Amino acid sequence: MNDKVIGIIGGMGPEATADLFMKIIQKTKVEKDQDHFRIIIDNNPKIPDRTKAILYGGESPINALINTAKNLEKAGVDVACIPCMTSHYFIEEIQNSVSYPIINAFDVVRECIFKHYPNVKNIGVLATTGTVKTGIFKKHLDFANVIYPSPTIQEEKVMEAIYGEKGIKRGVKNEIPLNLLKSAAEHLISQGAELIILGCTEIGLVLKQEHVEVPVIDPMDVLADALIK
Fold it and tell me: Is Isomerase included in the keywords of this UniProt record (predicted)?
């Protein structure tokens, strides 16, 4: 029986939150509606931008993140997650504010690599500049050589695809952000990447395995798997 109540600390961004919600539904083996997990989502897009806070001293998102997490606690969730990789920079503070466990997407990605790609030593990461600058991927993937795009590719391809005028955050999911991300992925492969992690939840809305010639891990896929265990 799928009796546990799953919480999603969401809104970063809203479409990435909805994508994780759908992944959980699609991965759950059911015969009828009642077989699904109860899922409670606080889709809070008013949480201040995480990258601006980390890189430029912008408004901290921590109070809003904690309040959102506490809303889920009041609603009675048994376990929760955060479909925003950059927000994991603050996960310890969020976890300390609530009694239920928050599954760390970085931990499940690490476990996925150990299980399915044990021989991979060079891992490419496409993520926001905020996530890159924190070093959080290198911390969790300390067994491998983590490869990031060059500064120029990072800003002109990756960040433009996410935050640009025709970027994913603005609801654009056509060939414009896709081609930018494909180019960034090809750059990582040219630098020796044997595997690529889609280290920002928006990226996985556009860039898929069929667009890349090496294995791709979407953290939201493995996070959904972990939540329904």
Answer: yes
Catalytic-labelled residue, pool 65, 162, 195, 200: 200
Could you give the percent of the chain with pLDDT greater than 70?
100
200 is catalytic: yes
Q: Please check whether residue 1 lies inside any domain of the structure.
A: no
Residues 83 and 184 in one domain: no
| CA of residue 132 relative to chain centroid, distance | 13
For residues 99 and 111, membership in a common domain is answered with no
How high is the pLDDT of residue 1? 61
The domain of 172 spans: 106-219
Q: Is 84 a catalytic residue?
A: yes
Q: Are 21 and 8 in contact (CB under 8 A)?
A: yes
Output the domain CATH number for residue 75.
3.40.50.1860
Give the integer Cα–Cα distance in Å for 131 and 73.
Answer: 27
pTM of the model: 0.94
pLDDT for the residue numbered 2? 81
Residues 108-145: tens digit of each pLDDT: 999 999 999 999 999 999 999 999 999 999 999 999 99
